[in-house]
Design brief:
Layout (H helix, E strand, L loop, with lengths): L2 H8 L4 E5 L6 H16 L3 E5 L30 E5 L11 H4 L5 E5 L10 E4 L5 H11 L6 H14 L10 H12 L4 H9 L4 H12 L2 E3 L4 E6 L1 H7 L21 E9 L2 E8 L5 H6 L4 E2 L3 E7 L2 H15 L1
The protein binds manganese (II) ion (MN).
Length: 318
C-alpha cells in the first residue's frame, strides 16, 4: 500500500492511540507528537503511549508532556493504534499487548529489519521515521504548522546526529528545509540536545570512555556501562545515548559496540559501523536489528560471556 492509501485509512478514524518504542529517542517521540498534534488539529482525538519515561531533555518539544507510560492512564478506547519508529513488536515493550487489541493497527517505520507486524504497514529506508511522517502528514492532508514542524525536525536531527550521519540524503535536507520554512525550532533543538548536557552525563562519559577496549586488531572498539557506573555518578541509562559515537570515530575502528547493563545478566548491545560492516546482520544474529550502520540487540548471560559472543559475532563480518 502507498503512503497515501495508508493515510486515507487512518483518516477514517476519529480516535487514535500512538505507540512509541521503549527507551524513546527523538525520532519516535517526534513522530508521535507531530501525529498527535496534526490529528487533533482536525478536531479528532489522539494520545501517545510509551512504555518508558520520556527523557527530561525532550521537555521543550510540543505535546511531549501528554505522553502516558501506562495503559491504565488512558481514558478511553481508540479506533486505531499506530506504532511509530518500532521495527519489531518487542520494541513497544509491555504496551504491545495493548497495541494488538485494535483491529486497525498501523506500523510506520524506517528500519529495514521491520517485521511488518500491523494490519497496515509502511516501511521505507529513510534517515528518520520523521521523514516518512512528514510525507504521511502531507499526503494525508494534515496541517504541518510550527509545532508539528519542530516535532518532525527533532527526529530528523537526532537520527542523523544533527545532519552528520551517512544516512542523510537530499530528501532529508529538502524536508528539513520545508520544516524550517514552517517555523521548526532547529537552533533550539541543536542547542538543547547537541550542545548541552548534565554534569552527571559528562562525568559518566569521561569514566566510560577512559575504559574503552580494543579487539580484533583495533577494528572493534568497545565501551561498557554497568549499573554501578550509573550509580557512581547519579546518572540514568538514557544519558548514555550518543556515547557510542566516540569509539566509532576512532581511525581504523570498523565497528563500535556499547554494552549497557539493563538488569542483572541482561545487556543492551548497540552496534555502530564506520561503513564497511553491516551491523544490522550482526545484531540480527542475536535476534535484534536496526540499520546497516546502527543496530542493537539484547543478550542475556554473564558479562564476560556476552562480551566474547559479541566479539566473535563481529569477527565474522569484518
Ligand atoms: Mn528512528
Amino acid at each position: 500500500m502507498s503512503l497515501k492509501e495508508i493515510a486515507a485509512e487512518l483518516n477514517k478514524f476519529s480516535s487514535v492511540l500512538i505507540f512509541c518504542h521503549t527507551r524513546p529517542d527523538g525520532d519516535t517521540l517526534g513522530c508521535a507528537t507531530a501525529l498527535k498534534i496534526a490529528i487533533e488539529k482536525k478536531g479528532k482525538k489522539a494520545d501517545i503511549i510509551c512504555d518508558s519515561a520520556v527523557p527530561e531533555k525532550f521537555g521543550f518539544i510540543p505535546a511531549i508532556n501528554s505522553v502516558v507510560n501506562n495503559v491504565k492512564e488512558l481514558s478511553c478506547r481508540y479506533e486505531a493504534h499506530v506504532a511509530v519508529d518500532c521495527s519489531v513488536e518487542g520494541m513497544m515493550g509491555e504496551t504491545y499487548y495493548h497495541f494488538v487489541k485494535s483491529n486497525n493497527t498501523f506500523n510506520i517505520d524506517h528500519h529495514i529489519s521491520n517485521s511488518k507486524y500491523a494490519k497496515f504497514n509502511y516501511v521505507e529506508n529513510r534517515a528518520a521515521c520523521c521523514e516518512i511522517m512528514y510525507e504521511f502528514l502531507t499526503v494525508g492532508g494534515f496541517d504541518i504548522d510550527e509545532e508539528v514542524s519542530t516535532c518532525l525536525m527533532l527526529g530528523i536531527c537526532t537520527d542523523t546526529g544533527y545532519f552528520i550521519h551517512s544516512n542523510v540524503t537530499d530528501s532529508t535536507l529538502f524536508i528539513a528545509s520545508e520544516l524550517l520554512k514552517r517555523g521548526a525550532k532547529l537552533h533550539e533543538i541543536g542547542k538543547k540536545l547537541f550542545k548541552s548536557q548534565k554534569k552527571a552525563r559528562a562525568l559518566l562519559y569521561a569514566d566510560v570512555t577512559s575504559k574503552i577496549r580494543f579487539y580484533l586488531d583495533d577494528k572493534l572498539a568497545m565501551i561498557s556501562i554497568m549499573k554501578q557506573d550509573l550509580e557512581k555518578f547519579d546518572a540514568t541509562s538514557d544519558m548514555t545515548e550518543g556515547f557510542i559515537d566516540f569509539p566509532v570515530s576512532i581511525e581504523g575502528v570498523e565497528v563500535a559496540v556499547s554494552i549497557l547493563e539493563n538488569k542483572p545478566n541482561c545487556y543492551k548491545i548497540s552496534f555502530r559501523s564506520s561503513g564497511k560492516v553491516d551491523v544490522n546482520k550482526v545484531a540480527a544474529s542475536f535476534g535484534g536489528g536496526g540499520h546497516i550502520l546502527a543496530s542493537g540487540c539484547m543478550i542475556n548471560g554473564f558479562f564476560e560471556d556476552v562480551k566474547d559472543k559479541v566479539i566473535r559475532a563481529v569477527s565474522l563480518y569484518l
